[in-house]
User: Fold Cullin family profile domain-containing protein from Micromonas commoda.
Amino acid sequence: MMGDRKIINLEDGWDFMQKGITKLRAILEDGGQEPFTPEEYINLYTTIYNMCTQKPPHDFSQQLYERYREAFNAYITSDVLPALREKQGEYMLKELVKRWDNHKIMVRWLSRFFNYLDRYYIQRHNLAQLKDVGMLCFRDLVYSELKKNVKDAVLALVDKERDGEQIDRALVKNILGIFVEMGMGGMEAYEQDFEAHLLTNTAAFYSRKASVWIDEDSCPDYLVKAEECLRREKERVGHYLHASSETKLLKEVEKEVLAAYETQLLEKEHSGCAVLLRDDKTEDLARMFRLFKRIPAGLPPVADIFKKHVEKEGVTLVKQAEDAEGAKKEAPKDKAAAAQGTEQVFVRSIIQLHDKYLQYVVDCFSNDSLFHRALKEAFEVFCNKVVTGSTSAELLALFCDKLLQKGSSEKLSDEEVEMTLEKVVKLLAYISDKDLFGEFYRKKLSRRLLFDRSANDDHERSILTKLKTQCGAQFTSKMEGMVTDLQIAKDNQKEFEKWLDDDETRKPKMEFAVTVLTTGFWPTYKFTELALPEECVGCVTTFKEFYDKKLQHRKLTWIYGLGQVTMKGNFASKPIELNINLFQAAILLLFNEQETLKYTEIRERLGLPDEDMARNLHSLSCAKYKVLLKEPENKSINQDDVFTYNEKFTDRMRRIKIPLPQIDDKKKVEADVDKDRRYAIDAAIVRTMKSRKVLPHQQLVLEVVQQLTKMFKPDFKIIKKRIEDLISRDYLERDKDNPNVFKYMA
Assistant:
């Protein structure tokens, strides 16, 4: 019972505790002492317990709490500090680790002995716990005195390691653990007393190194060293620094080694970024990207050099095409074929250039959007230049035409054709006049479809799908309609043939097929009057009868200029099959009745305009195949010329195609596109004003440009004219107070 327990006064109790503390110190100092027995531990704990639970004034909790602190201070002052003060450098660090480990053991044992204080007295009075008191004693007496020397010693070891020497990493890790623990749960001690100095030291170290490397090394060699430094510093964090230091440490290295010398590295005369691009040093470029991505605003200068390099190579290709065209003009033999060859070579070169640098963006620059944009901007520069007198839009359309035609000069497999089409559509993204490409492509597509020149229907549909994805459904709607028309026409022809078979009296004297086209889908073809030969009149009448019964409300317009005829020419040496157009056939059929005809007689009988007469007669009498003889013998067609059937005409082939001189319809295509653009601008202006009601001039123009840029770059002057036109047509009106503001007239 408490009343029977003997009172322990302060000094007697402390003398007993002091013996336990002395034994603990002896164990820690030399280890020669036997460890505490359970009985000794219980006696020491009980003594504290009793001294704290005696009734006042004999409750010595406060005095014991203070003497607990004094016990640590005495041990540190008499044993720990003298041992540390007599050592320097690495030896001092080892001694500190040993003393810190001992101190933690002492804290653990003493806090057990004095545990009753923790449980009651400390909680009631809101004081620091025993464990924390022990730590604070070490921090206030040992750490505060030695932290500068310890920091200097650790930094010396770090510098040694950076210079290639081996160091005791475990020792450094333990020391830095002390810095962390001195924060008592926070990182302030580590950050202020060590990390801040480490970062300063790191910056100075790499500043010295980089200043030497920049003069001695090439750009790739420098970057190899920089990458190795970063790898080692990251490794260093893993070995002994606190994980929170990694970002800060690497940032210092990046600042001193990369950011400080970026411009010099990129512009090095014989090894800078432009040289690496020129020499295809992909590994070095990938390293450059990895490293400069780490620093703020590190990539834009690299992307800018990349853009200029690609642009320069593209402009070189344009110049090469111009030079090749100039050289071929001097040798006029195969001028037409040579021109086509130059265009094909140019587009193929652009595709190869795009393949190459797109691969750079993927492999060297990790698909970074900055480099995709640089590639796009570079290609937009030279892909919108006029090459050999043609726009890139026209050249791309021509390239596709050659690729998709039967008997293409490029012998490619189906997979290669598909890949090439995919690449062409990617190039189209860089062309500002996509609508011009669309019109040229539609013209070429119409000829392939109508004259059965298309090599593969699947490829035709495939590129339309790709174009639809790239430019939208409206872009390809007419082209898709053309392809569908041809399929419907084939079905229509089968029905027509079945209709003929049903009644033998309907069958005309010659075989013929009709392709019915929908006016809105196809390019505009010139309607030319022609007095059809008697042989053809029955064909037209028969088909009209069939079509009128099938579709009563449709009107047929016959485009004779697109008609193709195969006829037999009975010449003296042998019969030859002639593949010609309907106009040529109509002219030749006249010579079945008379061997000689004047120009005026032919025109009178057929009713053809002079322009068409001249072209077709020229092809039959002045070109490669002289089926007709002309008097006088010259290369021009005049109204007083006389033409005679050439009975002696012969050729080594049994079947020949007599072509017409090509008409350059480029101007017509461009005129059609200009007209469509005016409609598109009108629609965009009205659409914008309808939704916004009131807009100032500048904002209206900007919004219209933004809407139309996907298809073409509208001219500001034309937009202004279209606005004026819409005002005159009462779609818009000017604000009475401000003439630069427009209102929509509902």
Remarks:
- Residues 334-339 have pLDDT under 50 and may be disordered.
- The first helix runs from residue 10 to 30.
